[in-house]
Design a protein that fits this description.
The structure holds two protein chains of two kinds. Chain A is an alpha/beta fold. Helix content of chain A is 37%, strand content 19%. Chain A folds into two domains: 312 residues, HypD, alpha/beta domain 2 (Rossmann fold, 3-Layer(aba) Sandwich), CATH 3.40.50.11740; 57 residues, no CATH class. Chain A is built from 17 helices and eleven strands. The longest helix of chain A has 16 residues. Chain A starts with 9 loop residues before the first helix and ends with a helix. By secondary structure, chain B is an alpha+beta fold. The chains are: A alpha/beta, B alpha+beta. Chains A and B meet through helix 1, helix 8, helix 10 and helix 13 of A and strand 4, strand 5 and helix 1 of B. Bound molecules: iron/sulfur cluster. Iron/sulfur cluster (SF4) binds next to helix 15 of chain A.
């Protein structure tokens, strides 16, 4: 497939890794922001290709992982209602709430459906006029235009039995929160390529300036990631702190204006609680007043539900790059993808699940082609 | 979650007033909403995320990056005398 295969070329990957080794004369800690990047890094064993003095820590960029426990519990409360068809992206189904996950709730008789695109919900709503169809609208900036469009179209098409439970999160405030933490170790970021395909990178420029931290917008294939690492390491070595784009085939500075326009029509920025991290100011999207009638949280009165996260799970520290999954006492013991305690063990993009699934100590550079 | 997959537009149509495309992902065809790439045409490569085309892939930029990578290749070869890797520039 064009635009895929050439970015998985093992020879080029090795050359890039050699180049990184040559470039890195000191110890550097880089964070890849996006869970999709974490997944690629672990799947292809890219961190094993890197020299020892270049460490990748895994960022908070998996919306499934950072959706707050109370939001999950609210979703479950709605999904359990007999008058509701609850629609969700597939990766939310196994995320543990306080006492169940959507799979279990579905097995108990709830009408839970996996959708590929948010627009699928409108078809379901039209086909089931006697039910309330609720969509669990989660995601980063990448997913926001799709989730905004379904609300917009519901109104355009006059669909009355549809609403959304919105738990959108935004990347720049999370990056800032990581940099503001007194124990921060991150010296440069691989920026989230697909988030920036929508939002552009103008919001990251002040961060680069204020914190003097290099940010390199990076794609998701092995070559993309290694190129991002190389560009970030070169900046660090040369004492530069700039915004660079290693994903120029897909990302432009202004992002996608048509998508941003739709986001602005439907959503407003709000404070948002992140699982394992807590509330980050102005780090999420909620529906604007104009679209309140589509707010499932209000319609079903679940906004009072509060939840307490399990104490043993250190996913908050994993998400901020302070700890690695195997630093967690529960990793691979009480907590596995079959019995996850924290959301980072659930999503394939969660750092804990990625480490577990790819048998962290077995991955070799050879995996590049064989697993591609 | 933010996974977006490259595919090629091989047909444009409308569905309930929404611009849609048939996108070929290396043999598998799926529909995607084109509202956010109003200028895209048949033959363009786009990134698709949860049923929405979100970005056009820029062939020139891709070639530029690959040019850079292959030059780096040659530089390394001068350095350590390794063999030509022979990957293709798209
Ligand atoms: S291994 Fe499980 S309990 Fe430990 S941090 Fe990861 S998700 Fe939480």
């Amino acid at each position: 497939m064009k635009y895929l295969d050439e970015y998985r070329d093992q020879q080029v990957a090795r050359k890039l890794a050699d180049e990184i080794q040559r470039a890195a004369t000191r110890r550097w800690v880089l964070m890849e922001v996006c869970g999709g990047q974490t997944h690629s890094i672990v799947k292809y064993g890219l961190d094993a290709l890197l020299p020892e003095n270049v460490e990748l820590v895994h960022g908070p960029g998996c919306p499934v992982c950072v959706t707050s426990l109370e939001m999950i519990d609210r979703a479950h409360a709605i999904a359990r209602r007999p008058d509701v068809i609850f629609c969700s992206f597939g990766d939310m189904l196994r995320v543990p709430g306080s006492n169940a996950d959507l799979f279990k709730i579905k097995a108990e008789g709830a009408n839970v459906r996996v959708v590929y695109s948010p627009l699928d919900c409108l078809k379901i709503a039209r086909a089931n006029p006697d039910k309330q169809v609720v969509f669990f609208a989660i995601g980063f900036e990448t997913t926001a235009p799709a989730n905004a469009m379904v609300v917009w179209q519901a109104r355009e098409q006059g669909i009355q039995n549809f609403s959304v439970l919105v738990s959108h999160v935004l990347v720049p405030p999370a990056v800032t929160a990581i940099l503001d933490a007194p124990d921060n170790r991150v010296q440069a970021f691989l920026g989230p390529g697909h988030v920036c395909a929508i939002a552009g990178w103008t919001e990251y420029e002040p961060i680069v300036g204020r914190y003097r931290v290099p940010i390199v917008i990076t794609g998701f294939e092995p070559i993309d990631i290694l190129q991002g690492v190389l560009m970030a390491v070169r900046q660090l070595e040369q004492g530069r702190a700039e915004l660079e784009n290693a994903y120029a085939r897909a990302v432009r500075r202004e992002g996608n204006p048509a998508a941003q326009q739709m986001i602005d029509r439907v959503f407003r920025v709000c404070d948002r609680a992140w699982r394992g991290i807590g509330i980050i100011p102005r780090s999420g999207f909620a529906l604007t007043d104009e679209f309140q009638q589509y707010d499932a949280g209000q319609i079903f009165g679940v906004e009072t539900i509060q939840s307490v996260e399990p104490a043993i799970c250190i996913s908050g520290q994993v998400l901020r790059g302070l700890k690695k999954p195997h630093d967690c006492p529960a990793f691979g013991k009480q907590c596995t993808p079959e019995t996850p305690l924290g959301a980072t063990m659930v999503s394939a993009e969660g750092a804990c699940a990625a480490y577990y699934n790819y048998g962290r100590h077995l991955v070799a550079a050879e995996s590049l082609v064989t697993r591609a | 979650m933010c996974l977006a997959i490259p595919g090629q537009i091989n047909g444009l149509h409308e569905n309930a007033g929404v611009p849609m495309a048939k996108i070929d992902f290396g043999g598998i065809t799926r529909e995607a909403c084109m509202s956010y790439l109003p200028d895209a045409i048949i033959g363009d490569y786009v990134l698709v995320h949860v049923g929405f085309a979100i970005s056009k892939l820029d062939a020139e930029e891709a070639a530029r990056t690959y040019q850079y990578l292959s030059e780096m290749d040659q530089l390394s070869e001068l350095d350590d005398g390794e063999e030509e890797t022979g990957h293709e520039v798209p």
